[in-house]
């Protein structure tokens, strides 16, 4: 009786310890699950931010501000904000390595036909177009300020087009970014750039350089603070194809030097290799 009773006590004590151990294991498991979920949700938030830019390509993600520095645009944006403060708003550099600051905002002004630009450049732009018309060149604004949504749509359309030509997703994103800037890295989102075309030929391709409107613009755009942003011989620096229709406001002083020296904005600001 004594032995059996003792064995029973031992048995009850054993199962009590086991229940306590399992309870601790369950609590530990729940804690690990909570930590995992928190990490997953944090990673998901980053993924969603990247997806907003329409790409999974690491190179393109880095170009849009997602990379080794915490997968966020803040570090690069802070540097760019500091650079803009020292250089001036008109010399804002927007490209793959210099995305727009996350808190970027611009006050827009209408320049007709549904187009808007940074209000600080509207007067010079309209003067340029008016003087071009007086010289016999009817120059039209084809594209001006773009929202993030619009830029994303254009970029994704180009990626889709590239994929239809047989490119892989990664290669399609890379090639598309040379033609349509990755969202967040487009000058059109700054309000400082416009696509201009001669009324006689409004297609945005290299034939634009043969028009009277283009010829007048490259001779006189600096007088109004504009430059040809993506010259034919600077694609290795700008990362963008030759665009004889894309003009960017940088201010009259900078524009005069850039056009006279036949350099691009990256070279003027000292960001070229």
User: Largest sheet at a glance?
Assistant: 4 strands, antiparallel
Shape: globular
Helix-strand makeup class: alpha+beta
Weakly predicted, low-confidence segments:
1-12, 39-77
Task: Kindly report the average pLDDT value.
Answer: 80
C-alpha Rg (nearest Å)? 28 Å
The percentage helix is 40-55%
Order of helices and strands: HHHEEHEHHEHEHEHH
Percent of residues in β-strands: 5-15%
Number of discrete helical segments: 10
What is the topology, as strand order, of the major beta sheet? 3-4-6-5
Q: First CA to last CA: what distance? A: 93 Å
Quantity of strands, as a count: 6
Task: Describe, in plain words, how this protein is organized in 3D.
By secondary structure, this protein is of the alpha+beta class. 52% of the residues lie in helices and 12% in strands. It is built from ten helices and six strands. The strands form two sheets. The chain has a four-stranded antiparallel beta sheet. It has a two-stranded antiparallel sheet with strand order 1-2. Helix 5 crosses helix 6 (169-179). It is globular and about 85 Å long.
Write a brief caption for the model.
With 273 residues, the chain is of the alpha+beta class. Helix content is 52%, strand content 12%.
What is the fold's blueprint, element by element?
Layout: H1 2-51, H2 58-63, H3 74-87, E1 108-112, E2 115-118, H4 119-134, E3 139-143, H5 148-164, H6 169-179, E4 193-198, H7 212-220, E5 226-230, H8 235-238, E6 243-249, H9 252-261, H10 265-269
Antiparallel strand pairs: 1-2, 3-4, 4-6, 5-6
Key descriptive features of the protein:
273 residues; four-stranded antiparallel β-sheet; two-stranded antiparallel ribbon; 10 helices; globular
């Amino acid at each position: 009786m004594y032995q059996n009773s003792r064995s029973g006590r031992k048995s009850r004590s054993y199962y009590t310890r086991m229940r306590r151990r399992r309870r601790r294991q369950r609590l530990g498991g729940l804690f690990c699950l909570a930590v995992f979920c928190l990490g997953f949700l944090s990673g998901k938030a980053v993924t969603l931010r990247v997806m907003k830019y329409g790409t999974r390509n690491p190179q393109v993600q880095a170009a849009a501000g997602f990379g080794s520095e915490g997968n966020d645009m803040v570090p690069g944006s802070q540097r760019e904000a500091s650079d803009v403060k020292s250089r001036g708003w008109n010399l804002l550099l927007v490209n793959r390595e210099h995305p727009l600051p996350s808190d970027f905002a611009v006050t827009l002004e209408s320049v007709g036909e549904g187009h808007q630009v940074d209000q600080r450049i509207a007067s010079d732009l309209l003067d340029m177009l008016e003087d071009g018309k007086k010289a016999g060149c009817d120059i039209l604004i084809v594209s001006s300020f773009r929202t993030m949504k619009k830029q994303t749509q254009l970029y994704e359309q180009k990626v889709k087009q590239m994929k239809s030509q047989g490119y892989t997703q990664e290669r399609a994103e890379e090639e598309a970014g040379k033609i349509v800037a990755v969202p967040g890295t487009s000058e059109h989102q700054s309000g400082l750039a416009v696509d201009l075309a001669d009324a006689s030929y409004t297609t945005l391709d290299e034939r634009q350089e043969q028009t009277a409107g283009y010829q007048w613009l490259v001779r006189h755009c600096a007088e109004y603070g504009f430059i040809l942003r993506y010259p034919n011989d600077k694609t290795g620096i700008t990362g963008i194809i030759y665009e004889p229709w894309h003009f960017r406001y940088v201010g009259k002083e900078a524009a005069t030097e850039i056009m006279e020296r036949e350099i691009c904005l990256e070279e003027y600001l000292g960001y070229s290799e």
